[in-house]
Amino acid sequence: MDARRAVTVSKYLAKHLRHRPDRIGLALDEGGWAEIDALLAAAAAHGFPVTREELDHVVAVNDKQRFAIEGTRIRAVQGHSVAVDLDLLPATPPPHLHHGTVARFLDAIRAEGLKPMNRHDVHLSPDRETAARVGARRGRPVVLTVDAAAMHRDGHEFRVSANGVWLTRAVPPQYLRFPQSG
Q: pTM for this structure?
């Protein structure tokens, strides 16, 4: 499978396992799992045939490890806008986490903090490099630092997904540090 096809399949999987399973008639269970055979049949029926080999390849090589396979089922490991319970337990975060964004959102973030927007949680990265890559998807990245230790101490809950993304309901502005130039 060439790299371009892998990206296309990954984006298709993310869209339908995180946001729009109904668009192709796919049913997710309460944990976000879908039967692989049902996913492949639904994709083919809706004009986007994917082989099991392609699916396995995308799951294995995805740099962000967005998907998990368990037996005959597959799910996205985080980032859902549809109602699912990933059964992630509360965890103690590292002292600092990071969030990648772009300059045009900084005024709103300064005023309101980080919000989940159309997702269930705010996504935070354990390192600046990952946060910069996330922010770069929308333009020149700005990396914010989150005082996760203070948030946790003040009662905010954190969970960590299977691929190392830290999740929390929101980050109030007082826990954010902005770069000097941002």
A: 0.76
Provide the pLDDT confidence category of residue 182 given band limits of 50, 70 and 90: very low
CATH class of 3-76: mainly alpha
pLDDT greater than 50 at residue 92: yes
SS in 3 state form for the chain? CCHHHHHHHHHHHHHHHHHCHHHHCCCCCCCCCEEHHHHHHHHHHCCCCCCHHHHHHHHHHCCCCCEEEECCEEEECCCCCCCCCCCCCECCCCCEEEEEEEHHHHHHHHHHCECCCCCCCEEEECCHHHHHHHHHHHCCEEEEEEEHHHHHHCCCCCEECCCCCEEECCECHHHEECCCCC
Region of residue 149 (left: phi > 0; alpha: psi -120 to 50; beta: else): alpha
* Fold type of domain 96-177: ADP-ribosylation fold (3.20.170)
Token pair, residue 10, equals 């990954």
Q: Where do you find CATH 3.20.170.30 in the chain? A: 96-177
Higher per-residue pLDDT: 1 or 151? 151
